[in-house]
Amino acid sequence: MSDDELDQRVRASVLAEQIDTSRVEAAVLNRMRQRHVPGWAVAAAAVIAMVGASVLSYRTFVKEQTPPICVAAAQDHQREIVQGEPRPWLSDIFAIQSLAEKQGVPASAIAALTTTGYGLQRARLCFLKKQIFLHLVYTKDGSEYSVYLRPPSGLFNDSVRGGQALAYFETNRVTAVFVSHGADALAFARAGARVL
Amino acid sequence: MPHVRSLLRVARRLTVDSAAAEDLVQETMLLAWRGFHGFRRDSNARAWLFRILLNAFYGQVRKVSRAPQPVPAVVDAKLQEAVEIEEALLALPIDQRSVLLLCIVEGFTCREAAEILNVPIGTVMSRLSRARQELRKSLAPRVKAEAKAAFQ
Q1: A191: alpha, beta or left, given left = phi > 0 and alpha = psi -120 to 50?
Q2: pLDDT (tens digit, 9 = 90+) per residue, A158-170?
C-alpha cells in the first residue's frame, strides 16, 4: 500500500465521521457570555478589602483612644460653629490676646497660629469637661476650624495625632485641640505644632 | 463557529473520549477568545487554533495519563474498515497520532505541523513516516484479505 493510498484511506475514514458540534458551540458561547473576571481584578478587590478593613480597625482603635476632652471639643465645635448657636464672641485681636493672657495662654501662641496661613476670626471662652479653654475660630479656603487652647494641663503629651476632623497635642506652652468639619484639621494642627 | 468541527475531530482521536474531546475544544475556543489580542493577523488562524488545542492537550496529558479506550465492535461490514483504521490510529503513540492527524487528515504541511507542535520539521517527518509504518502494519491483514478477495 503506497503512502498516498494509505493517506487517502485514513483521511476518508476519519472525515466520514458525523460530528455534532452544537453542544460544544453552545457551551463555548455560554462561557463567553459569562463575565470573565481577570485575576488582577480579584487581587485588586482583595487589596481594597484589606485596606478598608485596616481603615475601619484604625478608626475604631483611634476612636477608642480619643480622650474625652477631644470628644467634648468636637461636640462644642458642632454646636457653636456647624449649628451656629448664638454665643458672645470677641473678634478684636487685642481683646482676644488679652483674654488669652488672663487664661494663662501666651498671646504669642495666638499670634504664632496666624502665621500658618489660617486667619483668626473670633474667640471666646468655653468649658470642655469642666475645664476652661480659649476657643479660637480660624478660617482658610472657606472652611472653619476651631482651636481650643489652655495652659499645659497634662491631658495628653503626644505629638500630633488624630483623624481628619480632630487633632490634638500638648506643648510646653499650650494644650491644643483642633477641630473642623469636612476640612483637614490635622494639617492645621501640624502647622500649629510647628509654631506653638 | 469556525474550525470547531476539525478541532473536535482531532480532539476525539487524541483524547479517545468524547466528553474529554468536547471539553478540550471548549477550552481551546475560550483560550483563543481570551488570547485573541496575541493572534497575528498575517498568520494562519486554523493553525493557531490547532496549536492552542495541542498545547492544551499536551498540558492535560502531562497531568493525567489516559489509557486508550477500546473501540466498540461493529457488525456492519461497511463500517468495519473505518473501525480498523480507527483502532490502528488509536494504537499509535500520541506524538505520531497528532502528526498524522494534522498532516494527513487536516491537510497541514509538515512545516505547518512543526510550527503547531513547536518541534523541528525533521521530527514531524520522522514521526509521520513511523506513523505510516505502524498503520501499514496494523492494516496489513485487511489489505491482504482485500487482495485475496480481488483474485478470487
Answers
A1: alpha
A2: 434 444 456 777 7
Hey, what's the cell of A86? 448664638
Interface TM-score (ipTM) > 0.90 = no
Question: Which residue ranges make up each domain of chain A?
Answer: 3-55, 67-195
* Element housing B46 (H / E): helix B45-63
Global confidence as pTM: 0.49
- Between B4, B26, B105, which is nearest A10 by CB? B105
- For the segment(s) B72-152, the CATH number from 1.10.10.10, 3.40.50.1820, 3.60.20.10, 2.30.29.30 is 1.10.10.10
Distance from CA of B145 to the nearest CA of A (A): 13
B45: its cell numbers: 488562524
Smallest CA–CA distance, residue B35 to chain A, in Å, is 12
CB of A26 within 8 Å of a chain B CB? The answer is: no
Contact A9/B at CB under 8 A: yes
What's B1-69's CATH class?
A: mainly alpha
A35–chain B nearest CA distance, Å: 12
